[in-house]
Amino acid sequence: MILEPVAPYRPSHFHVKFAVAEWERRACAALRRQVFCTEQGIFAGDDRDAIDAHAIPICALSTLGGEADAVVGTVRIHEAAPGEWWGSRLAVAAPFRGTAALGAGLIQVAVASAHARGCTRFLAHVQEKNVALFEALHWDSLDRVDLHGRPHRLMQAELSAYPPMHDPECGLITFRKAA
Fold first, then answer.
1. Does any domain span residue 7?
2. Which H or E element spans position 172?
3. Is 140 helix (H, G, I), strand (E, B) or coil?
4. Residue 2 domain-assigned (yes or no)
5. Whole-angstrom distance, CA of residue 170 vs CA of residue 121
6. What is the number of H-type helices and E-type strands within the chain?
7. 8 lies in a domain?
8. Which CATH number characterizes residue 130's domain?
């Protein structure tokens, strides 16, 4: 009998929400280290900074049989000044990077949840390679900047495209687009 190779499991949808469980928060931190320290070499050892003390982590969970199985994406948000919120450290696990729904879902929960908390301006420094995704999601480029030796853009979300999300602990379900 000849066995055919089995394709790796690819979830059809993802649950994007605030990382409230301790395992979710640990997995978000581990994913950030993997992406920003190991893969991109932007930081040595760890990417945590003072913002982490008050930032809200958001996770994208893959699901298996309807249950959360792993953190495959993350971003953090924080209020820097009254009404001014920032998103940072958006990271997606390597096997899921072609899934635009993950980045879009993380951005949706980030901006919409901040909007519900009184955000009047939402900003992010976006790596140049990700600018097109943000522009497609109603973000405007304000300036070009160099951060950590890499080209970035200072970008601002159009808040009218992000209705307030009052239950980010429940979040949303986003579906992987067919190839």
1. no
2. strand 172-175
3. strand
4. no
5. 24
6. 3, 8
7. no
8. 3.40.630.30
Counting residues of the chain whose pLDDT is more than 70, the rounded percentage is: 89
Range of the domain at 110: 13-175
Distance (Å, whole) CA 97 – CA 107: 14
For 120-160, the pLDDT digits (tens) are 999 999 999 999 999 999 999 999 999 999 999 999 999 99
Q: Which amino acid is at 46?
A: D
Assigned domain for 87 exists = yes
- Token pair of 43 as six digits: 């930081």
Q: Is the pLDDT of residue 48 over 50?
A: yes
Q: By three-state DSSP, how is residue 168 classified?
A: coil
Radius of gyration of the chain measured on its C-alpha atoms: 16
Distance, CA of 6 to CA of 151 (rounded, Å): 40
- Please state the domain count of the chain: 1
Distance CA 96, CA 73 (A): 8
Record the pTM. Answer: 0.91
Q: How distant, in Å, are the alpha carbons of 83, 92, 145, 153, 158 from that of 141?
A: 19, 22, 11, 6, 11
CA 171/CA 179 separation, integer angstroms: 25
